[in-house]
Amino acid sequence: VNLRDLCSLLRFQRPPAPHGARCLARAHSIDDVARVARRRLPLPARSYLDGGGEGEHTLRRNREAFQEIDLLAHELQDVSAIDTRVDVCGAALPLPIAFAPVGGARLIHHRGELAVAPVARDAGIPYAVSTLASTSLEDIAACGGEHLWFQLYVWGDRKDARRLVDRARGAGYEVLLLSIDVSVRSKRERELRAGVTLPRPHLTFDSLLEGVRHPAWSWHFLTSPAPSFPNVTSSGPSDADLEAMFDGSVTWSDLEWMRDRWDGPIGLKGVLRPEDAVRAADLGADVVVVSNHGGRQLDHAPASIDALPAVVDAVGDRIEVLFDSGIRRGTDIVTALASGARAVLIGRPYLYGLAAAGEAGVRVALDLLTTELRRALALVGAPSLRALDESFVRRNGPRRGWAPVHQPVLRSAG
Ligand SMILES: Cc1cc2nc3c(=O)[nH]c(=O)nc-3n(C[C@H](O)[C@H](O)[C@H](O)COP(=O)(O)O)c2cc1C
User: Fold this and answer.
1) DSSP label at 185?
2) Which of 194, 265, 299, 329 is close enough to 89 for a disulfide, judged by CB 3.0 to 4.6 Å?
3) How far, in Å, CA of 275 to CA of 223, rounded?
């Protein structure tokens, strides 16, 4: 063997670190980012991020269902220029992607929401801020995002929820989303086993040990102000009574008062039944998000992607239908859009980036998905999002045999 030839094959340099996130230099997919994230987080934070409701059947189904859908390319289309622009809730967006609302992001990274907002701002995509964000909605707005949405949880006598809606409007939030799939908080067994307490972890011997094993996270955690829920602390949950906040009293009448109070686009997040989407449209909603909360609420709820086509059939010509739960790939985004969603929300994908490398990690995660989306559009032969329709998708899973993906999966109530 010629030594010079051999040397020319060897490369000892580190690959360049995207956005300065050195630990993600070799992350080529969201799953790669997730692996780095899991190494950096102590067990309670890892369980909070990754866990689902009860036996986590729906959490798993969200991924399996995507894997059971084939994408059928239309070949020989001119895809030399890919256009990912889309209008959502009256805003022209460069990408069909929004950051989903997430409570307590500072448990995952000490900068929490303040490490997410600049990425959404720079990419020009919406950031849906949770009522249970660990940063005040005004401080997040001060990061200057162009498209801020506010996700509302309502509780108690609604006085504080009303005040919160007014605060969101005052701070420039554009879209109001009511999450409807948390009548009560589900039993998150992974969190229970790991001893998760929100918003502040309690110190136990086990959590101390985990802290020692994850020194970087622990150092930042101990040297930063303790996480809290600043949007609701006046009369909302203290550490212990998140369970009490979700008292099961949310009904359709909440959408009615919200509609009267909010003059911008308004929607429901967590819709899975077509007739709920119809009712939302009848009550003046502009948008619904087909979602099962990333498998974190009702276990045995259908995979979100299975529920999407029937909702689109029911209201797609009246209001905008967005989608979340289980997106990990550009091809998943193409599947959701071809199944009728206008855009998707992502939760864990950007949280993995956040856990792995803070703001730089969120940028890496979004870049990976964006690059994959553009490549997937080229490979399926769709030069723009408008070109996508149900002819691109076919359900081909072992569980149900072949069925068209747009077949309704839920019986109507009537
Ligand atoms: C750690 C975590 C916290 C969440 N907190 C909220 C929340 O406060 N409000 C809400 O409406 N949804 C919440 N969600 C659900 C997300 O908004 C979104 O529906 C879900 O993450 C989408 O699934 P994916 O993680 O597979 O992308 C949370 C999700 C995660 C992973």
Assistant:
1) -
2) 265
3) 49
